[in-house]
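Hey, I was hoping to borrow your eyes for a little while. I've been puzzling over a protein and I'd love to understand its fold better. The fold is given in discrete form, as structure tokens running alongside the sequence. I'd be grateful if you could look everything over and explain what you see. No rush at all, and the record is pasted right below.
>
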Amino acid sequence: MRLLSVLTFPPLIARVSGSTSFSMGNNTATPGVITKMSLDEINKIRSGSVQPVHVKNDILAEYTFPTEWPYTESDFEREDESSDSDFYSVPRFVTHIDDGAINGIKQLYSQVFREGDDVLDICSSWISHFPDSNVVRLGKVTGLGMNAAELERNAALTDYDVKDLNKEAAFPYANESFDIAVNAVSVDYLTKPRDVFKEIHRVLRPGGLAVMTFSNRCFPTKVIGRWLRTTDDEHVRMVATYFEHCGAKYETIRGFQLQTSGGWDPLYAVMANKVSSSTDNETCESNL
């Protein structure tokens, strides 16, 4: 098992250690600068025809997906298998990544959010790291999280629901309800990821975008075991494989390390689009 270095802030958060090789490419964007983009630029990034402007390393550039689901039941076991609802019952009004990584998420969202988008924030909390309304004005923003007190404080949300996705992955929303689904620094806690990614697909509108962002911090007793044993690059490949093997039709799956403005926390993103046709209702495989 890989070593963890326990940090003093945020409380109970540890950092997954390990080395990853990075390449800067030809990107000259200034990390941390959030500017309003044209609709044409946003649509190109959303569709995957161009990369986000602050990509540091295209991790999936030469990756070939496995032909079958490569993970085992033990990969999703955790040190603490007690109730997640109990674990998250006490509100935590802290940020789980540093300001540089937070700003990197805002910068990414500013490049893919369109005016009036209806957004689903999965595993939401008291803050969503969305860009300011002067950058983009969203439509409905729904939070799906574990703690009502945290969700109630989230000023970005127009409504929210409390649900333990590790207990039941079904979302309480109608088909094709959202333009974008996002998940910030929580995908590593999902014990039934294929079921969740199938639900994301169901509630996205045709052509809709799913965005998973994460760093190398975690609650080590609640994160899935394989996450602790693998590198940051492998985390990107693993999340991408969730899209590929959830039993629903995603396309243009891409995964990156993103540049951030200062701080120590790296930032990664995996994105995929629901296919434009709305007739691809396949039955998802069971998670394991």
